[in-house]
Amino acid sequence: MVNKSEKKKKRIIPVRLNLLFFIVFFLFSVLILRLGVVQIVYGDDYKREIERTEDITVNNPVPRGKMYDRNGKVIVDNTPKNAITYTNFGASQDEMLDVAKKLAKLIELKPDKVQERDKKDYWILLNPERATKKVSEKEKEKLKEELEAKEYDKKIYNLQLERITEEELSELTADDLEILAIYRAFNSGYALTPQIVKNEDVTQKEFALVSENLQYLPGVDTTTDWERSYAFGSTLKTVLGKVTDSDEGIPKEQLDYFMARGYNRNDRVGKSYIEKQYEEVLHGQKAKVKNVTDKSGKVVETEVISEGERGKDLVLTIDMDLQLEVEKVVEEELRNAKSSGRTSLLDRAFVVMMDPNSGDVLTMAGKQLVKDSETGKTEMQDFALGNISTSYNVGSTVKGATILTGYQTGVIKPGTVFYDEPLHIAGSKEISSWKNFGNTSDIRALRVSSNVYMFKTAIAIGEGNYRPNKALPINKKAFDTIRQSFAQFGLGSSTGIDLPNESTGYVGPEKTPAQLLFLSIGQYDTYTPMQLAQYVSTIANGGYRIQPRMVKEIHAPLEETNELGPVIKEIQPKVLNRINLEDGWMENIHEGFRQVVANPEGTAYSKFLGADYAAAGKSGTAQGFYDGPLRKNFKNPVEVMNLSFIGYAPHDNPEVAIAVVVPWAYEGHSGHSANYNIARRALDAYFDLKKTREESKLASPSTTDNGAAEGAETEQQEQQEEQTEE
């Protein structure tokens, strides 16, 4: 018999089991409901989340840094302009073509950059069935047997391209070619990297239409692009350099170098001179954008990591006011000399003005007369670059270096006298000074520009023994001795200027006695105007060869303003070497150069009469052969005279040095004085400008920003001079 407690116990167990089943059922129901919500409502989102991957960070270019002159005037800037871009966010070929067709209805793009290969590719894209029939089935079967899959597809496509006829290509209409031009631009960049479709002559109407229809043009955007602008036109443009355009991008030969430094293939980079030399400074900090894509390559999220910053600004050593004045002088004197009727080959002239104590290039002027092949008219073009890229026989301007070489080798000493008379060497024509000067000292030799004094110094360096009408044996090591000595001043060696592709001149290959004598008077090896400027600066500052520089400061950029930001780096003067001197050596060279200008017997005396400053200098006339652009027009070599002048002022405390070169100045033995005229007028311009600025500063010392800047510049220059002396 079952008692009551057992019955009660049996009844409780089923109740508990039912409750448990109910709870389990309820939990399963909630789970199923939750799974349903996850799968049905959020399934696609979670699927994308699982499949999404982070792509590489994309760097978007920014405007380049500006260039200013030493007084804060903008020389090179960026001019904004409307642009239309395309970024491929994983679109297929058909999708890109569809967008190109829509965009072609809104803008005009000339197909001038479309190549024949582009047309053939596009024809195949438009006519896939006709393209397929270009290769027969038998050919395909044969190629399948001979080639692997990849090579097979490539071969088939190349055969299709080859068999497209001119008639078939002519089927492409003007509208087709415009669409092709846009489609080509779409394909010219990397995925996820904005590519410029049009940035030239984008009208306000085009810009507005595209902006209004962006929702129908996936990947297309309207933005502001930039191009380099030059506040002073062509002035100094050959030295400032060029930047590649958006179509050029990175030059092929430099692709690996720049790609390894985070550049995009279509980035614009400096391709010559200052733009190239300071590319890493001017290029700026690019904006960084991270694109998150799914497995199919579609962008699901874009995140801006950094906004980027335009390139840093450069302050050049150039004084643009002085540059413009000197260029005006060069142009006028070049035209005057050309119209004198004494030359047909003269087409260029050069001037370099430097601070001999710091190496600052204040002016680098070069002009060239060029005949336009279409109009036949002769135009004056900027050729400032010629100061470092071209070299010439410069004549007697090197005589200061010749005498110092004589001092250093011990063959002469201050006060040594040679008898100036014509020299007769067996097998050679008579060689002499332009006048027989009789007994001549080293100082007078510079003053009157004695060739014979230099000849006899060179003969002594070469251990020769001159006897009239006899052969002149010399030690050929004398060539190396003189050239190594000249190189101490920068003649025949790199000046170290912060510009690429500097020429070091021509070194004559022959080592005959006659050539040694010509070397000593600047009529054998060739030198650039910049080398002459460094050479005369080395004499002016007492024997320090200082590296010429075009850039003196690097500044942080300030947005939306033409004012300079904080200084990031100040480029200090650099002494390359110091001439080994003894007492009296450089003093005699200084005195000889001073007398060239100040003594009535000096070759430049009449040219500097009445100057408000006391200058020193040396003129040069070199007889040589024409080797310019018209040399192919002559069967025989044409003898020409090159003119030059070097100098500095004031002679007792030099603050500016100058080198002038006028190549192929005239034919024959009489001509013009363009070298003297340019030197005098250029130095006048320097001191006139200095006087005007000092007067302006005194007139308003508390309100003239330029005056304050000049005061700071003067203080900095004094510090640099002290460092140079140390």
Output the CATH topology of the largest domain: Beta-lactamase
Uncertain residue segments: 703-726
User: How many domains make up the 3D coordinates?
Assistant: 3
Mass-distribution shape: elongated
Indicate the radius of gyration in whole angstroms. 38 Å
> What profile does the largest beta sheet have?
7 strands, mixed
Top-tier CATH class of the largest domain:
Alpha Beta
GO molecular function, one term: penicillin binding
Catalytic activity: Preferential cleavage: (Ac)2-L-Lys-D-Ala-|-D-Ala. Also transpeptidation of peptidyl-alanyl moieties that are N-acyl substituents of D-alanine
GO cellular component, one term: plasma membrane
Family: Belongs to the transpeptidase family.
List keywords for this structure.
726 residues, peptidoglycan synthesis, disordered C terminus, 7-stranded mixed sheet, Beta-lactamase, Arc Repressor Mutant, subunit A, alpha+beta, single chain, Penicillin-binding protein 2a (Domain 2)
